[in-house]
Amino acid sequence: MRELGSLEREAMEVVWGAEEPVVVHDVVAVLNARRAQPLAYTTVMTVMNNLVAKEWLARHRVGRAFAYRAVEDKDSRTARAMAEALEESADRRAALVGFVGRLGAADAAALRAALEGGE
């Protein structure tokens, strides 16, 4: 999966935060509530279509509009990004040691529990 631009990331946050699939109008409303300079509907529609092309979103027709949902939840996407970053490393052990070295105590304990088969 390709990486996201800042507006794409903002749109994904809106989609991930929604209980149900969203239409562009809903995303525009949430994004513009946070901005001094409002975004055009067509700008957000283009962003949503780009996210479909990048396989971050899936869509289905609802009347004359499309409803969008995330292909993966945020936690699954984060896990995928971590695995992809590890695959790109020339020295996987060094990358893992470096990652673990940056963890705080709570995250290290959570990782330890996951490795031991717990949650």
Automatic annotation (TrEMBL):
It comes from the Bacteria. It holds the Pfam family Penicillinase_R. Coiled coil: none annotated. InterPro entries: BlaI_family, WH-like_DNA-bd_sf, WH_DNA-bd_sf. Keywords: DNA-binding, Transcription, Transcription regulation. Belongs to the BlaI transcriptional regulatory family. This is BlaI/MecI/CopY family transcriptional regulator.
